[in-house]
């Protein structure tokens, strides 16, 4: 399974009542696939507000995304949690909905050790025939999965990739020592090009909601050896990469991206509590980013 170079971690559109807006989900998917050139979509990842979605909503979204995408892109289900049994249950249900793969975040809050991480991911991978992408994000999960643990997990046949948000050194180590075919994705938009330079395959992106087409150009330029062109595109996009997460204070992924999409005419609604919409100062900053 090749999920492509540019994967978008998709927001979940809500209506005025805070319920999933299915018509706007269609419109958003068309936009991400056709205009922003996403090769795959992560549904119900952190950017999709997975902590506030019920399991029933997640399964509805998985099924809907598979059916509506109709083969135009791959659909990756976010089924990770900090409970192994729950992750297995959600993974098996996602497989029944026809998704192409799953994304499993490092367990958060309960802080397992490296052996606990290995057994967690091993158990989930063994419960499914789907390809598995690991997701190491120390800023959210508190702990970091080591390169050694990732490489050990990469020996399991259906663990095929990792989304890495730790250091470039870790990206380089995994890319250099993993089995052939195992792919490393940058989980940080602003580090995507540097990560490619040390062996990453692509990026699982949030900014691709807004500038995916240009990101695809950057990835293609680098892969085809036009490194200076890739660097120029990266430099042009850097204010957007940084601004979406700082605007002007640090904000969670969905907040700024949803506001930006709404400004662009894609009515994805607001965020669910405990997240809050941007302040007036933050909103003004985001509007300036879009000019």
Primary descriptors:
291 residues, alpha/beta, 8-stranded parallel beta barrel, 12 helices, 48% helix, globular
Structure overview:
- The chain has helices spanning about 20-35, 55-70, 85-95, 115-125, 140, 145-155, 170-175, 190-195, 210-225, 225-245, 255-265, 280-290; strands at about 5-10, 40-45, 75-80, 100-105, 130-135, 160-165, 185, 200-205.
- It has about 290 residues and is of the alpha/beta class.
- Helix 11 (about 255-265) packs across helix 12 (about 280-290).
- The longest helix is centred in the last third of the chain and has 20 residues, at about 225-245.
- Report the sheet with the most strands, covering strand number, pairing sense and barrel closure: 8 strands, parallel, barrel
Arithmetic mean of pLDDT:
96
**SSE string:** EHEHEHEHEHHEHEHEHHHH
Oligomer: single chain
In short:
With 291 residues, this protein is of the alpha/beta class.
Q: Topology of this structure?
A:
Layout: E1 6-9, H1 22-35, E2 40-43, H2 55-69, E3 74-78, H3 84-96, E4 101-105, H4 114-126, E5 132-136, H5 138-141, H6 147-153, E6 159-164, H7 168-177, E7 183-186, H8 192-197, E8 202-205, H9 208-223, H10 227-246, H11 253-263, H12 280-289
Parallel strand pairs: 1-2, 1-8, 2-3, 3-4, 4-5, 5-6, 6-7, 7-8
């Amino acid at each position: 399974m090749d999920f492509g170079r540019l994967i978008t971690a998709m927001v979940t559109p809500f209506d005025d009542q805070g319920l999933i807006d299915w018509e706007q989900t269609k419109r958003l998917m068309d936009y991400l696939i056709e205009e922003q050139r996403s090769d795959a979509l992560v549904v119900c990842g952190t950017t999709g507000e997975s902590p506030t979605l019920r399991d029933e909503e997640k399964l509805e979204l998985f099924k809907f995304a598979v059916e509506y995408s109709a083969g135009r892109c791959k659909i990756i289900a976010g089924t990770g949690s900090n409970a192994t049994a729950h992750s297995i249950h959600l993974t098996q249900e996602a497989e029944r909905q026809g998704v192409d793969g799953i994304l499993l975040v490092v367990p958060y809050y309960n802080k397992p050790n490296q052996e606990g991480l290995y057994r967690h991911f091993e158990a989930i991978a063994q419960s499914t025939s789907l390809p598995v992408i690991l997701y190491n994000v120390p800023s959210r999960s508190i702990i970091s999965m080591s390169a050694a643990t990732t490489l050990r997990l990469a020996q399991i046949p259906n663990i095929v990739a990792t989304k890495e948000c730790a250091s470039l050194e870790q990206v380089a180590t995994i890319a250099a020592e993993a089995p052939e075919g195992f792919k490393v994705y940058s989980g940080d938009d602003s580090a995507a090009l540097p990560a490619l330079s040390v062996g990453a395959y692509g990026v699982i992106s949030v900014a691709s909601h807004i500038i995916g087409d240009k990101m695809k150009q950057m990835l293609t330029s680098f892969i085809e050896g036009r490194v200076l062109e890739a660097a120029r595109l990266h430099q042009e996009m850097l204010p957007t990469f940084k601004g979406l997460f700082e605007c002007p204070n640090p904000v969670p992924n969905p907040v700024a991206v949803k506001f930006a999409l709404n400004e662009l005419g894609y009515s994805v609604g607001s965020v669910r509590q405990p997240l809050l919409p941007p302040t007036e100062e933050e909103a003004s900053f985001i509007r300036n980013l879009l000019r």
